[in-house]
Amino acid sequence: MARWYEQGFTFCNNLSFGLQQSQGGPCGILAAVQAEMIRYLIDSDNQDVPILSTIEAQTLLIHAILNILYRALPPNKKCITLCIFGIFIH
Q: Which 8-state DSSP code applies to residue 48?
């Protein structure tokens, strides 16, 4: 379980929106978030595999996580507040 806390969300070097799993991290969580990211890309009208900037990939990741959390809310509680601290873009 400690490996899960060390995982975080990191992107692959060879696919700008691909999430990378390391150290036997939580593959189920990563797969769900990755699927949501791909769903968002498919819903856009772009027919090609996109090459995203770092900021675009991070924004896509945030949207994916928020969409998953939003769908998990009870029907009468459809509000999410997001606070992001210490975002560093390299």
A: S
